[in-house]
Design goal:
The complex is a heterodimer. Chain A is mostly helical. Chain A is built from 21 helices and three strands. In chain A, strands 1-2 form a two-stranded antiparallel sheet. Classes of the chains: A mainly alpha, B mainly alpha.
């Protein structure tokens, strides 16, 4: 254990002092922690750390191999960028939540057993939900509750799956699923797919991310779905189902992006689309495909964060988020435009930008595996990616109709963070070597062939031609789009109706009975009791009542009504219960 | 310098030169696609020069109109207060 500092611990314990630090010291501290974590990941050696037995089961806090190191590397880089982007925030809450969120994601990436994985998995859900709650508006609170509800449900499926899986295999250790996939494995897969936002389990993402705070959404865009990609890569590589889910997903996100009017929701649909490439790659499961999915996750985290930072900067400066209300900002925000466009070129896989060297690996792997249909569908999705993030969104946000908005460049820390992400997007695109060296398998792939470059440019620039010709058809409209969240948003209405109408009537009937029959009896006995009471019991009762009153006061102070406090109490309770259980079990 | 590049893509005064540059780039891409070597091509369409231009344009048009069709006729797009 001595030569291994768990990066998750750095973030989670490192979050504790944040509220007590002020001003420049806090800023320095906030930057220092991700830097230290990055160094910790760089110096980590492959191996197993923190093995122990727990309730008669082997657990393994950290299992380090190439796959976990790639994800941990990009997670810590992203934590640094996201923290710099959020440096101007004066309240500690979001910094703490972001650190716990990043720490939990790293905990999942290194988890060697299902119990560790599950605890960090839930930690991620609660910490990230805070970033939506922190936005403060009524809409955001609603979205955050739905986000929590979906993730708690997914967590239950995962936990159930883990228990069944352990009952069958007898081991808690987390690794590739072997043999036929049973019910337990399917439940685990469902829990993973939910976090990867695979349709129809995708709506939590596009519902909640656009409602999060400007800085919170940047963190969210990076961690939850990519942790899910990691666990899928670890446990389910080569599962045929994933190929088709991933391919459908890539197109699903693109179709919804056409309809979308909210700038960050459009980007959120492109997360769904891009994660589709990764899921499909993992489903194909060849060495090249897994390499492609992993490297694409690496590149995706950086360019997607850059895009969210660009859109966030616009929201921060103008206070507007709908494309129908934005336009003409290029004169006042040229740097933001340029940095955003670097992210857009990267996601669209323009040659010499990061997406080009990673996305093409997934598509080429599909080709090599003789999956022509998958290849064509994924290529079509990349056309759609450029159409929206590279053309539609910047056109209506920065160019288009000049709405005469008062705007300026965002604070310097935001620009610096965007600059860092942009530099990496270009660096990876030009020198893919270091990234390829990090990948789990040796890379035998050359992205820069003449045919590949002209093919990519042909796809992209003729998409631009289509955009120019059919520009009017793409005008954003003042609407929202129905997605699978319809079922629980409208379904909840049905439940409320049930609670209000039939159940309320039943309750009224019960109370009627009690009023006519039970109450007179109670009155009578109360009078008898009063007589008894007056003769002597009073003194004792008064003493007891006084102590209960003080106790009640103390209890009331515990009830803050803040959801995060309850959530923390629940997590503490779960941990306490497990400890008690473990001791008694022995 | 960045401001001037961004200005070139936004300002109305450059509209004509912007358009010329765009068409020039399109033409160059198609020409280059005829010149590159394709010995590794596995699929039929990979051997067709200019295929990517056609497929890119077609994808773009299909995505726009299929999505808008689903949105309008399929009922996916709703008023903003739909859930309120």
């Amino acid at each position: 254990m001595t030569d291994f500092v768990h990066p998750a611990l750095l973030f989670i314990l490192g979050a504790v002092p944040i509220p007590f630090l002020k001003g420049t010291i806090r800023k320095a501290y906030l930057v220092l922690v991700p830097l230290l974590a990055f160094l910790a990941v760089l110096t980590i050696g492959p191996g197993s750390y923190g093995a122990a037995t727990f309730i008669g089961q082997e657990i393994l806090i950290a299992k380090v191999d190439k796959l976990s190191i790639v994800f941990a590397t990009v997670f810590t880089i992203m934590a640094l960028i996201g923290t710099v982007y959020a440096l101007h925030l004066t309240r500690a809450g979001q910094h703490v939540a972001a650190f716990v969120y990043v720490g939990s994601a790293l905990g999942v990436v290194f988890a060697g057993d299902y119990l560790t994985l599950y605890l960090f998995w839930e930690g991620m859900a609660f910490a990230s939900a805070y970033l939506v709650f922190a936005q403060g508006s009524e809409k955001a609170t609603g979205a955050a509750f739905r986000y929590l509800m979906v993730h708690v449900t997914g967590g239950v499926a995962l936990l159930g799956g883990i228990l069944l899986h352990v009952a069958v295999t007898g081991s808690l250790l987390f690794g590739p699923m072997e043999g036929a996939i049973g019910v337990g494995a399917y439940l685990i897969l469902a829990g993973f797919l939910l976090n990867a936002a695979v349709p129809p389990l995708n709506a939590w993402l596009t519902d909640a991310y656009p409602e999060a705070t400007v800085t919170g959404a940047v963190f969210m865009s990076a961690f939850t779905t990519k942790t899910a990609v990691y666990v899928l890569a670890r446990a389910f590589p080569g599962t045929e189902l994933l190929v088709w889910l991933g391919t459908v997903m890539a197109l699903y996100g693109v179709v919804y992006a056409v309809l979308e009017n909210d700038c960050r929701r459009l980007l959120a649909y492109h997360i769904v689309s891009q994660v589709g490439y990764m899921v499909a790659g993992l489903g194909i499961g060849t060495e090249m495909a897994v390499n492609g999915a992993t490297s694409h996750a690496f590149a995706h985290i950086l360019y997607k964060a850059l895009l969210f930072m660009g859109a966030g900067a616009v929201i921060y400066v103008t206070g507007r988020r709908k494309l129908t209300e934005l336009g003409g900002l290029y004169k006042t925000m040229p740097l933001t435009v340029a940095l955003y466009m670097i992210g857009a070129f990267a996601i669209s896989a323009f040659p010499f930008f990061s997406g080009f060297v990673t996305k093409s690996m997934v598509v080429a792997a599909a080709g090599q595996d003789h999956r022509a249909l998958v290849m064509l569908a994924l290529t079509m999705a990349s056309s759609g990616t450029f159409l929206h993030t590279g053309l539609k969104l910047p056109y209506y946000m920065f160019f288009g109709t000049d709405r005469k908005l008062e705007a300026r460049e965002p604070p310097r820390n935001m620009l610096v963070a965007m600059g860092m992400a942009a530099a990496l997007c270009i660096a990876i695109g030009i020198f893919p070597g270091p990234l390829y060296a990090l990948l789990p398998y040796p890379v035998d792939f050359e992205p820069f062939t003449g045919a590949h470059v002209t093919e990519s440019l042909g796809i992209l620039m003729f998409t631009a031609l289509g955009f120019v010709i059919f520009l009017r058809a793409l005008d954003p409209e003042n609407t929202i789009s129905l997605d699978t969240d319809w079922f629980y948003r409208k379904g909840a209405r049905g439940f409320m109706w049930l609670a209000e109408k039939p159940l309320a009537r039943y309750e009224k009937a019960v109370s009627d009975v009690s009023e006519t029959a039970v109450l007179p009896f109670l009155h009578g006995s109360a009078r008898a009791g009063l007589r008894l009471d007056l003769n002597g019991v009073d003194g004792v009762v008064n003493g007891v009542a006084r102590s209960i009153l003080t106790g009640g006061g103390a209890l009331r102070r515990l009830q803050t009504g803040v959801v995060t406090h309850y959530a923390l109490a629940m997590i503490a309770g779960v941990i306490a219960a497990i400890v008690v259980f473990a001791v008694v079990w022995r | 310098m960045i401001e001037r590049i961004v200005d070139f893509f936004g300002d109305e005064t450059y509209a004509i030169s912007r358009r010329r540059l765009f068409y020039l780039v399109l033409a160059l891409i198609v020409v280059a696609d005829f010149l590159v070597s394709r010995e590794h091509a596995e699929y039929l369409w990979e051997r067709l020069p200019g295929w990517s231009a056609v497929y890119g344009f077609g994808s773009c048009v299909i995505l726009i109109f299929v999505s808008k069709f689903l949105g309008h006729q399929g009922g996916l797009m709703r008023r903003e207060d739909y859930y309120d």
